[in-house]
Amino acid sequence: QVQLVESGGGLVQAGGSLRLSCAASGRTFSTYGMGWFRQAPGKEREFVAGTSQSGTTTYYADSVKGRFTISRDNAKNTVYLQMNSLKPEDTAVYYCAARVIRGGSSYQAASSYNYWGLGTQVTVSS
After folding, report:
1. Is the CB of residue 90 less than 8 Å from the CB of residue 122?
2. Is the pLDDT of residue 101 over 90?
3. CA–CA separation, 112 and 106 (whole Å)
4. In this structure, are strands 4-7 and 58-60 parallel, antiparallel, or unpaired?
5. Is residue 123 over pLDDT 90?
6. Which residues have a Cβ under 8 Å from the Cβ of 75 and sit 6 or more positions away?
7. What is the rounded CA–CA span in Å between residue 24 and residue 82?
8. Residue 17 and residue 9 in contact, taking contact as beta carbons nearer than 8 Å
């Protein structure tokens, strides 16, 4: 069982930056693939970024590529999402998720993840 707690959300002007953190409980954090998803009002939850267990492989949605960076510190049981050049369309609740690596599943699919945090609100004003 893994518990995930996100932090770092807030209100920022367009063009600004935020860094989200996700702290995980348990001693097996390094065995999980990690991802960030977001959900805006009236929209479906969408993939933002993912990272492999070691952090050497990362994945990004096209909409955030070049602006967001996912990273992890396995010694601190924490995954981060650095968000730069924020746009109003980035406004959403951001969720951290952990997945048990299985063949045939992908980082981009929400159904691939086993554990979810409660989310942190990010609001970007124009």
Report:
1. yes
2. no
3. 6
4. unpaired
5. yes
6. none
7. 17
8. no
Token output for 10: 């807030």
How large is the C-alpha radius of gyration of the chain?
A: 14
pLDDT at site 1: 84
DSSP the chain: ---EEEE--EEEETT--EEEEEEE-SS-GGGEEEEEEEE-TTS--EEEEEE-SSSS-EEE-TTTTTTEEEEEETTTTEEEEEE-S--GGG-EEEEEEEEE--TT--TT-GGG-SEE---EEEEEE-
* Burial category of 114 from C-beta neighbours within 10 Å (exposed 0-12, middle 13-18, buried 19 and up): middle
Report whether 110 contacts 36 (CB < 8 A): no
Tokens of 75: 């010694």
